[in-house]
Specification:
The structure holds two protein chains of two kinds. By secondary structure, chain A is an all-alpha fold. In chain A, 84% of the residues lie in helices and 0% in strands. Classes of the chains: A mainly alpha, B alpha/beta.
C-alpha cells in the first residue's frame, strides 16, 4: 500500500515554493507594511506612561458601561500587569489583537454581507471556513513562515486565518436573518440596494455583527502564544520562554496577564443582549 | 387609479414556463405537482378608481397579498399589466425604467404591513420619517411632515420612544403615519389590522374611514375578514385559489353571492351594517290593497294612502314623518316614517322599534317601497330576493 505514495505533500510544497518565487515582491511588501503598522502603533502607545494609559482606560470603561465594579476591576487588572512587569508585552499583544481584529472585520464583514446575498457563494464559503477553523494552526504556520519570514507578521496572518471565520459567519447570519418585512418595507418606500444595506440590513444585523467582532477578539487573543513561536512579541513570548526553561513562576504570571486582558476586553465590548 | 389587466403571477424558477400550461387550462394543484411552480394569481382583472377603497378578500393562500404586492413591484407579474397613472400618463409599472419605478415607490405608492415592519432601532418619529429620509428631503421638511403625521395619529408624546414600547394598535398607527408621510396618493394595506385585538381593530377601522373621508386616497386593502371588507370597501374583490371569483360593492356581495364559496363567507356576516333600506324594501304591492290604499298594519287597521302620503288608522289620520340620515332618532313620534333608499338596515330596524310603525322607503326613481316586519326578518336571516 505504501509502495506508491500519493505526492500530496510534495505538491503542496511545490505550490508554496512557486508562491515564494513568483509572489515574493507582494508578500515582502505586505510584510513590511504590516510590520510598520504594528511596530508604529506599539511604539506610540508605549510613549504613554502606564498610569496615564490606565487612567484613560478607566475613564473609557466607565463611560462605555457605567458599571463602577467593572471599571475598578479594569484598573486593578492593568495595575497588576504593570506591577508584574508585563506592561510592554501587554501593549504589544493588545496592538496585535486590535490589528488582527480590524483586518478581520474589514475583510470578513463585506464577505459575510456578500454571502448573505448570494446563496451559492455561502455554499462555497462554508467548507473553507470550516477548514480554516479545524486545520491545526501549526500546519499553516509553516507556509506562512516561508512566505513572510520570522517576526510579527506570520503570527498576525495565522491569527487572521484562525479568527476571520467568526465575523464572516455572524455577519452572514445577521444579514440573513433580517426580517423579510423590514426589507420589503424598505423596498416599498423606494430604497436603492445601497440604502437597503445601510439603512435596513446593517442596523438590523448590528448586534450579530458586534457579537462576531467580540468573538474575533477572543479568538485572536487565544493565538498570542502560537504567534510567539514564530517570533512575534507580546505576552506569548514569556509563556514560550517559560515552557522552554520549565519556569513555573513566570509561566503563571504571563498566563494570568493574558487571562486578565481577555476578561477586560470581553466585559468591555460584549453587547448587552449578546446574540451567539 | 389602478388597473390590473390579465395579471398572472407564478412563483418559482423561470416562472414563464408556466404560462403555456396555464393557457392549456392547468389549475393550481396540477401546475404545482408537475412543475413545482406555485400559482399566486391567475387572470386577475380589477379596476380601482381614484379615491376608492378596494378590498381584496379571501382565505390565506388565496393570492390576495400576492396581487397587492404586484402594484408596487414587490412581486413581479409573470404576465399582464398593472396600470397606474403617473405624471399624466397611464403606464405599466413593469414597463417603466428603474428610476421611474423607484420614483413611483417613493412618491406615489406607500404600504402598510400586517406585522407593522417598523425599524426597531429607530424612534417613532424616525420611523415615520424613514421614507422621507430615503428620498433625501431636508431635515426641516422631514421634521415638518413627521410632526403633522404624529399629530394626525395622536402619538406626539411618543415621538422619542422605540416602537417596542408601544402597543400593537399604536405601532400600526406609526405604520400608517409612515405611509401617509410620503403624501403618496395610493395606499397599499396588507392585512394591517389582522394582528390586533378586535376592539382596537374596530377603532382603527373607524379612524381609517375618517382619514379617508378627508384624504381621499386610492386604497387597496387586503383582508381575510368579510365584515372588515364590507365595512371599509367601496368595492370588494373576493379571491379563491388565485382567482377573483366575484367583485362588486358590499351590497352586491351580500345580496348576490356568485358562488358557494362567497355564500359561505356571507352566511357569517352581520347584514345590519352592510345592507341599505333600498336593498331590503319591497314594493307596496306586496301589501293587501284596496283602491290605492295599502294595509300597513293589520292589527291596528292602518291603511296608507299612496296619493296623499297619509295613513288612516282606525279612522284617524296620521301624517307620515320624514327621517334623514344624520337626524336624531329621539325626535321620532309614533307614526309611519319615510326614509331614503340609502339609509342603513340598522337604522330601519331602530326606527321600526321606536315608532312601532312600518318604514316607507323613497327610492331614487321617487317610487315608494315598504319595510315591514316581514322584510326585516328576511333581511336578518339573509333570505332576501
Amino acid at each position: 500500500m505504501e509502495a506508491y505514495k500519493l505526492p500530496l505533500g510534495r505538491t503542496m510544497e511545490r505550490f508554496v515554493d512557486w508562491l515564494v518565487d513568483s509572489g515574493a515582491w507582494f508578500f515582502d511588501s505586505l510584510a513590511i507594511a504590516l510590520e510598520w503598522l504594528i511596530d508604529g502603533a506599539t511604539d506610540n502607545l508605549l510613549l504613554l506612561p502606564p498610569w496615564l494609559f490606565i487612567a484613560i482606560t478607566g475613564v473609557m470603561a466607565q463611560w462605555l458601561r457605567r458599571n463602577t465594579g467593572l471599571t475598578v476591576f479594569t484598573v486593578l487588572s492593568f495595575l497588576l500587569i504593570w506591577n508584574l512587569g508585563y506592561w510592554e508585552a501587554t501593549i504589544e499583544t493588545l496592538v496585535m489583537v486590535v490589528c488582527a481584529t480590524s483586518l478581520c472585520v474589514l475583510i470578513g464583514v463585506p464577505i459575510g454581507i456578500a454571502a448573505a446575498h448570494r446563496p451559492l457563494l455561502y455554499t462555497l464559503l462554508r467548507p473553507v471556513l470550516d477548514l480554516m477553523q479545524t486545520v491545526p494552526t501549526f500546519v499553516y504556520l509553516i507556509p506562512t513562515l516561508t512566505l513572510f519570514g520570522l517576526g510579527v507578521v506570520p503570527g498576525l496572518i495565522a491569527t487572521i486565518v484562525f479568527s476571520i471565520a467568526a465575523p464572516i459567519r455572524l455577519t452572514y447570519l445577521g444579514i440573513f436573518q433580517v426580517p423579510k418585512e423590514l426589507v420589503e418595507a424598505g423596498k416599498s418606500f423606494g430604497c436603492s440596494n445601497r440604502q437597503l444595506l445601510w439603512r435596513i440590513e446593517l442596523p438590523a444585523a448590528a448586534s450579530s455583527i458586534a457579537a462576531g467582532i467580540t468573538q474575533c477578539i477572543m479568538l485572536s487573543l487565544s493565538m498570542v502564544v502560537i504567534s510567539a513561536l514564530v517570533g512575534a512579541n507580546g505576552l506569548g513570548r514569556p509563556v514560550v520562554r517559560a515552557l522552554n526553561t520549565v519556569d513555573i513562576a513566570s509561566g503563571f504570571e504571563a498566563g494570568l496577564a493574558i487571562v486578565l486582558l481577555a476578561i477586560v476586553l470581553d466585559r468591555l465590548l460584549k453587547q448587552k443582549h449578546e446574540v451567539s | 387609479m389602478i388597473e390590473f389587466k390579465n395579471v398572472d403571477l407564478v412563483f418559482g424558477k423561470n416562472p414563464e414556463r408556466a404560462l403555456p400550461l396555464l393557457d392549456q387550462g392547468y389549475d393550481r394543484d396540477r401546475l404545482q405537482s408537475e412543475t413545482g411552480l406555485v400559482l399566486g394569481v391567475s387572470q386577475a382583472n380589477l379596476k380601482v378608481n381614484k379615491g376608492e377603497i378596494c378590498v381584496l378578500m379571501g382565505l390565506s393562500g388565496s393570492g390576495k397579498s400576492s396581487l397587492l404586492r404586484c402594484v408596487n413591484g414587490l412581486n413581479p407579474v409573470t404576465r399582464g399589466e398593472v396600470l397606474i397613472e403617473h405624471k399624466g400618463e397611464v403606464l405599466n409599472f413593469f414597463d417603466a425604467d428603474h428610476q421611474t419605478q423607484r420614483d413611483i415607490r417613493m412618491k406615489r405608492i406607500s404600504m402598510v404591513f400586517q406585522k407593522f415592519a417598523l425599524m426597531p432601532w429607530l424612534t417613532v418619529a424616525e420611523n415615520i420619517g424613514f421614507a422621507l429620509d430615503v428620498q433625501g428631503l431636508s431635515k426641516e421638511e422631514i421634521a415638518r411632515r413627521v410632526d403633522a403625521q404624529l399629530e394626525l395619529v395622536g402619538l406626539t408624546e411618543w415621538r422619542n420612544h422605540k416602537p417596542s414600547a408601544l402597543s400593537g394598535g399604536m405601532q400600526q398607527r406609526v405604520g400608517l403615519a409612515r405611509a401617509l408621510a410620503t403624501e403618496s396618493d395610493i395606499l397599499l394595506m396588507d392585512e394591517p389590522f389582522s394582528a390586533l385585538d378586535p376592539l382596537i381593530r374596530q377603532q382603527l377601522q373607524e379612524e381609517l374611514l375618517q382619514l379617508q373621508s378627508r384624504l381621499q386616497k386610492t386604497i387597496v386593502f387586503v383582508s381575510h375578514d368579510l365584515d372588515e371588507a364590507l365595512k371599509l370597501g367601496n368595492t370588494i374583490a373576493i379571491m379563491k385559489d388565485g382567482c377573483i371569483v366575484q367583485q362588486g360593492n358590499p351590497q352586491d356581495i351580500v345580496l348576490n353571492p356568485a358562488t358557494q364559496y362567497v355564500e359561505d363567507f356571507v352566511a357569517h356576516t352581520n347584514p345590519l351594517h352592510v345592507l341599505l333600506c333600498g336593498d331590503i324594501a319591497d314594493p307596496l304591492t306586496v301589501l293587501p290593497a284596496k283602491d290605492d290604499h295599502y294595509c300597513i298594519d293589520t292589527k291596528q287597521d292602518c291603511w296608507f294612502n299612496a296619493d296623499t302620503g297619509d295613513a288612516q288608522c282606525q279612522n284617524q289620520t296620521i301624517k307620515v314623518q320624514r327621517w334623514q340620515e344624520g337626524d336624531s332618532m329621539n325626535d321620532l313620534i309614533e307614526a309611519p316614517t319615510l326614509v331614503s333608499a340609502s339609509a342603513s338596515f340598522h337604522e330601519a330596524l331602530e326606527i321600526r322599534h321606536r315608532t312601532g310603525f312600518v318604514v316607507l322607503v323613497e327610492c331614487n326613481d321617487r317610487s315608494l317601497k315598504v319595510i315591514g316586519d316581514d322584510q326585516l326578518y328576511r333581511g336578518l336571516l339573509g333570505k332576501l330576493g
